[in-house]
Design brief:
The structure is a single chain. The chain is mostly helical. The protein is 72% helix and 0% strand. It contains six helices and no strands.
């Protein structure tokens, strides 16, 4: 099972719904241009979720749906995902936890480097 599905399943098991985050990420990816209000609405919804297994589901959703977006929107989605993942990593309470959370940041930065 991939990290996205695993994290989504953990959220659901904890009593949280992931549907709104997925819907908003998909809507952002379908936009032909960067719409700041869409990103704000996404962040407000994603900020309500915990970080099961050291991943921010908002960052994972932006990453997942960015592959369908236009180049300029995809870059912004990955940048936003990086910001979310960096915040998650900064909030760690132990060294091991911080290292685990930082791995997603590194993955996203590599992905941003591949964006056209």
């Amino acid at each position: 099972m991939d990290t996205y599905s695993f994290t989504k399943d953990r959220l659901i098991a904890l009593g949280y719904a992931a549907d709104e985050i997925e819907r908003l990420a998909k809507a952002i990816s379908e936009s032909p241009k960067i719409e700041i209000e869409s990103f704000k609405a996404f962040d407000e919804a994603a900020n309500k979720l915990p970080w099961p297994q050291d991943h921010d589901f908002g960052a994972l959703a932006l990453q997942k749906w960015s592959i369908l977006a236009s180049s300029i929107v995809a870059k912004e989605m990955i940048r936003s995902a990086i910001a979310r993942a960096e915040y998650c990593a900064r909030c760690s309470t132990s060294g091991g936890e911080g290292l685990a959370r930082s791995e997603h940041v590194r993955e996203l930065k590599r992905e941003l480097g591949k964006c056209n």
